[in-house]
Amino acid sequence: MLDPYFLFFFIPLSWFATMFFIEAGSIVMIPICRYEQYREKMLYVLGAMWAIIATSLVYLVVTLDTVYAPVLYVTGLILYVPLMLVIILLGFHHFFIGTAEGAGNLGDEKREKLLLYVALPFALAVAYSGVTLFTTVFSGIGFEITNAKLLLKGLSAVLSAGGFQNVNYQTVDQVLAGSLAANYVEMYFNPFNIVFFLAIVFYVVYFTVIFYGIRERLILGALGLTLAHALFLASTATWLPQVFQNAISNAGYWFYVVLTYLMLITVVKNVPFRQMWLVILTFAGGMMFGAFTNGQILVDLVPAGTLGPGTPAGLPAAALLTNPATLIAGVVVLSMAGILVIGGVTSVSYKVLYKAKVKRAAKEAVKV
Predict the structure, then answer these.
(1) Helix 4-28 crosses helix 274-292 at what angle (to 10 degrees)?
(2) Nearest CA-CA partner of 163 in 92, 252, 90, 70
(3) Contact 234, 191 (CB under 8 A)
(4) Which residue from 88, 224, 255, 363 has the highest number of Cβ atoms inside 10 Å of its Cβ?
(5) Which alpha helices (DSSP H) does 68-147 contain, by range?
(6) Concatenated DSSP letters for 326-365?
(7) In degrees rounded to 5, what are phi and psi of residue 304?
(8) 42 by DSSP, 3-state: which?
(9) How many other C-beta atoms lie within 10 A of the C-beta of residue 362?
């Protein structure tokens, strides 16, 4: 049975990914679409995304710390390179976007466009590092077992005790840090990571065409969506077979695929609340992926049967949960905070940063 706390963690993860798609997509589409035609709308959106992305990232980290506290130290120890790269690259990414916005406000549109072009590789690098963290945790590719005996003995003891939450944190650190190491070259440049990243990039192209209603790039959006679905199925079939089997055997997945194609019609018909439906659909896709994993991580690192006869490949994420009392209290607090983070901050950013700018621009246009 899928652990509900695992899906709870996927809520901020899916939300952050969806919000980053909006920002990254706005940058990626600049060299593809007619910049002058969509410039104003894109800049309004980029300006509104600052608070949402920053707050959503903090909320994601706090949720990770609350739900999977026993392994947070080891995670930071082994994955410090991609984690630091995400933070540094995200800083440069936002710096160039902010500087471009400032140049635009000063009337220097040429420099604005140049700075947005400079921000483009940083957006792609942030996305690639983020995808690397994601694929590494679920596949285990990029991890190396340095002490198989210690790892097997430690995991068997942990599962017998009912999970990491019932074991001394120092023992957890000794077992995982003493038996696992990271191969960063393999982690970043393995086929699964590259193919899955390309699936994300193609989906972002589709997402941006729908989000901004770019009619002249509708075929490009349809092509991007088709490639995204194809690469998702190809990558999971090869490296995450449980996800692949759960997806293709689930009617909800195929209904989701049909809905993604139907969203293309909203660009031509100009359906109300098009952006809202797209965000909900993308968020739902992230949640479905979480459900399809069955809560198993490191599936290519820990073969089936390793933790006992009949056990599936990978390690159950439920074994990594923090202690029950802290977990329940933390989830209650995070749920209330989530209403403010996901709902409140998004609403305020839309109303204050985006809608206000659109109204101001309309008034200035009337004056002219």
Answers:
(1) 130
(2) 70
(3) no
(4) 224
(5) 72-78, 80-105, 109-139
(6) HHHHHHHHHHHHHIIIIIIIHHHIIIIIIIHHHHHHHHHH
(7) -60, 140
(8) helix
(9) 10
Rounded distance, CA 131 to CA 196, Å?
Answer: 8
Task: Report d(CA 212, CA 219) in Å as an integer.
Answer: 14
Helix axes 251-269, 191-212, angle to 10 degrees: 40
Residue type, 259: L
Backbone angles phi, psi at 184, to 5 degrees: -70, -30
Q: Tokens 């596949």 identify what position?
A: 139
Sequence-distant (6+) residues with CB within 8 A of 365 are: none
Which tokens hold the place of 52?
A: 């949402």
Residue with tokens 């800083």: 91
182, β-bridge pairs: 143
Q: How many residues does the chain have?
A: 368
Helices 4-28, 191-212: crossing angle, 10 deg rounding: 70
pLDDT for position 4:
86
CA 279 – CA 265 distance, rounded (Å): 16
3-state helix, strand, coil in the chain (%, to 5): 80, 5, 15
Mean pLDDT, the chain cut into blocks of 10 residues (368 residues total): 83 89 81 73 75 80 83 78 88 87 84 88 91 92 81 68 58 70 92 96 93 89 96 96 96 97 90 86 94 91 79 82 78 78 62 54 53
Give which of 203, 202, 212 is closest to 267, Cα–Cα.
212
pTM (predicted TM-score)? 0.86
Q: Fill in the amino acid letter for 43.
A: L
